Amino acid sequence: MDKQHRYLPTTKEDRKEMLETIGVSSIKDLFSDIPESTRATKEKTVELEEALSEQALTRYMKGLADVNITTDTHAYFIGAGTYDHYIPSVVNHVLLRSEFMTAYTPYQPEASQGELQALFEFQTMMCELTGMDVANSSLYDGFTSLGEACNLATSATKRNEVVYSGAIHPQAKEVVGTYAYGMEYDVKEAGLDGTYTDMDALKELVSEQTAAVIIQYPNFYGTIEDLKAVKELCDATKTLLIVMANPLALALIESPGKLGADIVVGDTQPLGLPMNFGGPHCGYFAVKKKFMRKVPSRIVGQTTDEDGKRGFVMTLQTREQHIRREKATSNMSSNQALTALASSVFLSTVGKVGLQEMAQQNISHAHYVKNQLKAKGMEILSDDAFFNEFVVKCNEPIEEVSKKLLEQSIVSGYDVSDYLGTENALLLCVTEKRTKEEMDTLVDVLTGEGK
Amino acid sequence: MHTTYNDLVFEISRKGRQGYSLPESSIEKTDLKDVIPAHLMRETPAELPELSELQVMRHYTALSNKNFGIETGFYPLGSCTMKYNPKVNEDIARYSGFSNIHPLQPEMTAQGALELMYRLEENLKEVTGMDAISLQPAAGAQGEWSGLLIFKAYHEANGEGNQRKKILVPDSAHGTNPASAVVAGFDVVEIKSNKEGRVGVEALKEAIGPDTAGLMLTNPNTLGLFEVDIVEIARIVHDAGGLLYYDGANANAILGKSTPGEMGFDVVHLNLHKSFSTPHGGGGPGSGPIGVVDYLTDFMPSPRIEKDADTYKLTYDHPKSIGRVKGYYGNFGVNVRAYAYIRSMGAAGLQQVSEDAVLHANYLKARLEPYYDTPFKSICKHEFVLSGNRQKKLGVRTLDIAKRLLDYGFYAPTVYFPLIVEECLMIEPTETEAKETLDAFADAMIEIAKEAEENPEHVTGAPYTKSVRRLDEVTAARKPIVTYQRDTKAE
Ligand SMILES: Cc1ncc(COP(=O)(O)O)c(C=O)c1O
């Protein structure tokens, strides 16, 4: 390269001096160990577009970004696992602090106390919300956390099968299927009773071979499942209860821990993370104390330094791949520490009361829309206990509905017709961000009263 | 009460404080009792902190001041490629058109995002020499696991699923390699490195057989050495009916110089949070895309992305696919940053990256060689290992050297890995450090070697300048405290 690149400080003069110290005559000598037949040549090179200046780069990338419809211009009524929620400005400001953003896993705790303490606080917040004893410091996302939970359950119980409810997220089913393909256990599905898990089907399937039952709470269709009943069913066969929970809903609905869950997982995306087209989000993973030493990935613990001062370290590391290699509880190395930090900052900012208020607004908004639709004669397919999502039966195919809504600057809900085996079934989500005007427009379009 | 730097956020909290402002709602409040069964209503609220906005900022600023990042100073953590994370990429990833879009919104309303993913895949095909890329895996370890599931599916498709149950892994490999093999349902066979620190052809021939599913290799390996016999190794593996996996954690050494495709690998993962400059975030998020050669594309994770005339779409009909490994399409926001990086560098820039990374490593190695044991003499690639054995005889262990480096204003190298080198220090300077920084680090290492001779207690007592002294990790593991204990506020 002829021009000095802005990210590369080494000059021609530097290179000359360094080569002299090394005792070789050219850079080429440093690559002589790459076998000739595999080396790049003039004919066989990596071909990429020309490098862009900073201005050209931002202009180009802005062009790509501007093609997409966003929450800036449209009101989103889609949820289905990823949610458009309020994010206080402070969250991003903390994330931009390079001491957090550009660090890596806190291998040297004395120089990484900030990260360690922040993650210790995150673990505490997750335990508070879920009602569990121990939480790790994050996994890739909610679905992979569920996969890890199934791996833990099958290994802890030495049973070779998990049963999930038909009302968990379709992508969660797929990811669990992939984890099961890896570890070679069976997966069974208990069907639906309306938008609830079919308890009779579940009872039928669960046996002494079943390592765990998986319930989503609120479930994929927004419905709040009766965990207490599921727990009783599990107890009969000493089967573990895994709950995948929306952490925002847990501000108001009973914690899975209190209702007997053994493992609680989920995604903290509703807590301060932008939707990001699906990632990075942040998986959380919480367990009852007896499973502490089987948890995947990093856990931060409190300790003291030589002077007796409180400090934090990564702990119980004998679970992990860098110590135990093939005997580790999981293969996780990099996790989602920065997005865990985002959720911590979010929870510190919104706080104990704010989170309840926010959850309440979600419930109020979603029920307002549901009641309006119902009053205007629409059929509600999940007209029972729900949080911020419910299913409505539309009068025409969802694709048509979607188009009409887009014309009103609304991104419609998620088409769940195939999953429910019902035509024109639309899963709607109404968060605290939606205004009355937006909700009324939605209702007008769905009921055919729109302009 | 005065807030000190050592308080936990829960200790700063005070009932009634508020740091948020929720949108005004004109909707009547729904009575929870009407919509949630009594036994499913939360009885006791979660004890979350209550702070004002300034208190939040002051708390996290205080914490950040107790944390060391790349912009704080030199971060020579081997195998992690702690290069500069360009600021402009942070701006770009935050464009509303990338961050405020929903993964399930209609494809026609997210064409810019899909185009970016498609183009990144095309670029990564070039860099790796592979025929297809999936951006779904969230990090290196997930890439490994996905790749090994592809091995499994391939052998099953050939009717050899039950027979090929073993994955060969060199003893120098990263811990994720054997761990990933296990969660993919394989048994691990470890291959001992030869005296030169490489996979020996003889050892490989001995271990390989009709039960071999494949070999995982990091090239250059974790000692920073290129596997010079790679062509022969690939031939042996393929002749035995196995597949070859490339752990791309060390790809920073070979960009534009060679490709895993040319070397004969079948499946590759890259760590975009290493070679392609995306921030490590204090542990993540990363991104670990995988690439495969043409005869394995059918097994790739689903969905995949296609271009049809001028339209980009996701395709879901892949009956032989290993399935979905993660939600949605991977860590999209991380992939945006990596794509911005590639477009900022171009092919010539990436080649310069590898040349400078390798030059810097060899330079540091040359400067330190007189003072520390260097188990492997040959030229290295982008990183190298030292052994603290000489210092250990003086009573100073590698751990002590690492802690002492913190006092000199550096982060420590990776220590005690790879496991096959005693008292190992693994140093990766990266291409984004200036010569003056490399020299300052070398000077500090040389000074510490002298301290080990003249005043070993001073080294074993380090660090002295951080927010805490050495921490008791043994008690932390024996009597774990993993959440805030309300009744034990420390003074
Ligand atoms: C050589 C090597 N392989 C694999 C990994 C795993 O990558 P990740 O942490 O992204 O899962 C790492 C880094 O942690 C590594 O250094």
UniProtKB/TrEMBL annotation, chain A:
InterPro entries: GcvPA, GDC-P_N, GDC_P, PyrdxlP-dep_Trfase, PyrdxlP-dep_Trfase_major, PyrdxlP-dep_Trfase_small. Its EC number is 1.4.4.2. Gene3D superfamilies: Aspartate Aminotransferase, domain 1 (3.90.1150.10), Type I PLP-dependent aspartate aminotransferase-like (Major domain) (3.40.640.10). Keywords: Oxidoreductase. It comes from the Bacteria. GO terms for biological process: glycine decarboxylation via glycine cleavage system; nucleoside metabolic process. It catalyses: N(6)-[(R)-lipoyl]-L-lysyl-[glycine-cleavage complex H protein] + glycine + H(+) = N(6)-[(R)-S(8)-aminomethyldihydrolipoyl]-L-lysyl-[glycine-cleavage complex H protein] + CO2. It holds the Pfam family GDC-P. It is an enzyme of class 1 (oxidoreductase). One of its GO terms (molecular function) is glycine dehydrogenase (decarboxylating) activity. Residues 5-446 form the Glycine cleavage system P-protein N-terminal domain. Belongs to the GcvP family. N-terminal subunit subfamily. HAMAP family: GcvPA (MF_00712). NCBIfam families: PRK00451.1. The glycine cleavage system catalyzes the degradation of glycine. The P protein binds the alpha-amino group of glycine through its pyridoxal phosphate cofactor; CO(2) is released and the remaining methylamine moiety is then transferred to the lipoamide cofactor of the H protein. This is Probable glycine dehydrogenase (decarboxylating) subunit 1. It comes from Alkalibacterium putridalgicola. The lineage of its organism: Bacteria, Bacillati, Bacillota, Bacilli, Lactobacillales. The gene is gcvPA.
From TrEMBL, chain B:
The keyword Repressor does not apply. Its cofactor is pyridoxal 5'-phosphate. The keyword Protein biosynthesis does not apply. GO terms for molecular function: glycine binding; glycine dehydrogenase (decarboxylating) activity; pyridoxal phosphate binding. Keywords: Oxidoreductase, Pyridoxal phosphate. The modification N6-(pyridoxal phosphate)lysine is found at residue 274. Pfam families: GcvP2_C, GDC-P. InterPro entries: GcvPB (IPR023012), GDC-P_C (IPR049316), GDC-P_N (IPR049315), GDC_P (IPR020581), PyrdxlP-dep_Trfase (IPR015424), PyrdxlP-dep_Trfase_major (IPR015421), PyrdxlP-dep_Trfase_small (IPR015422). Residues 354-454 form the Glycine dehydrogenase C-terminal domain. Residues 33-301 form the Glycine cleavage system P-protein N-terminal domain. One of its GO terms (cellular component) is glycine cleavage complex. One of its GO terms (biological process) is glycine decarboxylation via glycine cleavage system. Its EC number is 1.4.4.2. The glycine cleavage system catalyzes the degradation of glycine. The P protein binds the alpha-amino group of glycine through its pyridoxal phosphate cofactor; CO(2) is released and the remaining methylamine moiety is then transferred to the lipoamide cofactor of the H protein. NCBIfam families: PRK04366.1 (NF003346). HAMAP family: GcvPB (MF_00713). The glycine cleavage system is composed of four proteins: P, T, L and H. In this organism, the P 'protein' is a heterodimer of two subunits. Belongs to the GcvP family. C-terminal subunit subfamily. This is Probable glycine dehydrogenase (decarboxylating) subunit 2. The lineage of its organism: Bacteria, Bacillati, Bacillota, Bacilli, Lactobacillales.
